[in-house]
Design a protein that fits this description.
Blueprint: H1 9-15, E1 37-43, H2 46-49, E2 61-68, E3 71-79, E4 84-86, E5 89-95, E6 106-114, E7 128-131, H3 139-143, H4 159-163, H5 166-176, H6 182-186, H7 192-205, H8 209-216, H9 222-229, H10 236-242, H11 244-250
Antiparallel strand pairs: 1-5, 2-3, 2-6, 4-5, 6-7
Length: 255
């Protein structure tokens, strides 16, 4: 779908912190001047500007994948409002992740379209590369108050953590019903506890777990995302409390 993607001069400049002039002329994504970002560029396709019969854009968002070779490390959804389009080129600002056991020092970036009907396109070829921030260089972590939770842009759950919890992984796989890859769903959450809560409450309230994962991409947090997809009139706090024991059971290490 994005066969025209490729490593561009703009992407190379972005890695040095100097995006092309037109790309810097509009607000970046995700918001926050304290988040270190790079800019990637790729060729636009006619489908990106096409609209359906209902007047909505056929492609309202992209998924951006951070890859280590062929392994998807994490995924990020970028809404259409965050694109910067100049003729036949599209630019997107991406946050630099912090290096850890599951996040290598350097990764390639690929993109794919997310259609208005929820369908996902194929991953593009490499559209650029990104270097992770070394843990000791993450000044944001040092500025956080003691005991404060990292922001969503700083902390994403990894498959390494989920693989260590067979019950949780099985529950997530069951609720996804093959609609999106498990690695993409996992990357939407901050920690295993939050993921377990999401899986449990989705099952309890018969909420589409893939839709909840999609809502997590643009929500302010888990509660905000849940409010967007939960049935109206539901006391979410009470429901979460009643499902707490089941969620806790999912994150108990295997014996």
């Amino acid at each position: 779908m994005l066969a025209g993607c490729g490593r561009s001069e703009g992407a190379q400049r972005g890695r040095r912190g100097q995006p092309p002039e037109w790309a810097a002329s509009r607000p970046s994504y995700p918001p926050g001047s304290d988040i270190e970002k790079v800019t990637i560029e790729f060729d636009a396709t006619p489908e990106m500007t096409a609209k359906g019969a209902d007047g909505r854009f056929v492609v309202p968002a992209f998924q951006v994948g951070y890859f280590d070779g062929s392994r998807l490390v994490r995924a990020l959804e970028v809404p259409r409002a965050a694109w910067r389009v100049d003729g036949k080129r599209v630019a997107i600002d991406l946050p630099k992740p912090v290096q850890d056991r599951a996040t290598p020092a350097s990764m390639s970036i690929r993109v794919r379209a997310l259609a208005s009907n929820g369908a996902l396109g194929a991953w593009s070829q490499d559209a650029g590369s990104i270097d992770a921030l070394p843990p000791e260089a993450d000044g944001r972590a040092r500025r956080r108050p003691d005991g404060a939770e990292p922001s969503r842009a700083q902390r994403q759950l990894t498959m390494v953590e989920v693989d260590a919890l067979p019950k949780l992984k099985e529950a997530v796989t069951e609720q996804l019903k093959g609609q999106i890859p498990i690695a993409e769903a996992v990357a939407r959450f901050r920690n295993v506890r939050e993921l377990a809560q999401a899986v449990t409450i989705s099952r309890k309230l018969q909420i589409s777990f893939p839709k909840l994962c999609e809502a997590m991409a643009t929500a302010r947090g888990f509660t905000d995302a849940l409010q967007r997809v939960a049935p109206s009139g539901v006391n979410l706090r009470a429901e979460l409390n009643s499902a707490r024991a089941e969620a806790v059971a999912l994150v108990k290490p295997a014996k």
